[in-house]
Amino acid sequence: MFHVKLHGSDAMARGADEKLVSRRIKLPKRIVEKPLRQVTRRLLMALFVMALTVVIVWLDRGGYHDNANDKVDFLDCVYYATVTLSTTGYGDIVPYSDSARLVNILLITPLRVLFLIILVGTTLEVLTERTREEWRLNRWRKNLREHTVVVGFGTKGRSALQTLLATGLSKEQVVVVDPSAKVIDMANAEGFTGVVGDATRSDVLLRAELQKARQIVIATQRDDTAVLVTLTARQLNRGAKIVAAVREEENAPLLRQSGADAVITSASAAGRLLGLSVISPSAGTVMEDLIQSGSGLDLIERPVNRAEVGKSVRDTDDLVVSVLRGHRLLPYHDPHASPLQLTDRLITIVRAAPQSSPPVTLGPTE
Description:
The chain is built from 10 helices and 14 strands. It has a 7-stranded mixed sheet, with helices on both faces. Strands 10, 11, 12, 13 and 14 form a 5-stranded antiparallel sheet that branches. It has a two-stranded antiparallel sheet with strand order 2-3. The chain is of the alpha/beta class. The chain has helices at 35-59, 74-85, 98-143, 155-166, 181-189, 202-207, 223-236, 252-258, 266-279, 281-290, and strands at residues 24-26, 64-66, 93-95, 148-151, 174-178, 193-196, 215-218, 241-246, 262-265, 297-303, 319-325, 328-331, 345-351, 360-361.
């Protein structure tokens, strides 16, 4: 029986402090004002228009007639402004002088139109924004499939995404899951769709449409969280490729047992790279270059083409490192690696090229 060794703090475990009740999908969008702020701003504008109307009527109150007592006081001015701007118009207070009627034509009427535009525009804008967001969300759910789900948007998650983007993955095919609303806002700012919530819960992963995902990257900071996320993800999606990162190497078997196809031990990998750089700084630089896609040399996986079938590993045009045959990974010097078969896949080293151009392969003589 395996036991998970805990280490450090985890962004996925900050859920309670980050208000997990707000689990929701956040699509990338331009920065807009919040609906409450929009309503407040427009309400202040409406009050300003009303106050201006009251002042205008008060200054020319002598030109107005009140059918009740023939006298127009301040309260009557407020009353007249209210019923006039709202287009109610009871007719109990009316302008009778030429100046009052001219002011109504030139000032009060435009203010009435502006007042209606503010009120109606606020309602329409809020409803339109909600409808637009609902439509975008439904369209996103309908069209999203074969995508990549990244659980945890810390250093590891960001680095994994940078590598995937360098290989041609589009940002529209990425969904980030993190319990921190601030982290998801940062992901939105970079063009990724985000889901706020605890990824150990199946309802959160379902919001990320994980059941339709092609690959899942689990980059949490705590190993026990990674195990729970892996178990939940594998239960929801049996066919997706799951790659998980752990801090402690002794927890890697548990991740594989939980359903991960590949497990990367971040602490051990960094330590080995440090040790290699101490022994040979140049070798460490080369290794760093290989794992950083898009610059210098790239390590890629590709299928065997028909012209290479039956050939030896050394007879290919690329610098082959390993051969993937079924579930076996054969090093290039393994006698069983040659001859190549059509169903094999090759792990090769190529020269990185701009994303708009195909990679330039390195032959054994280069």
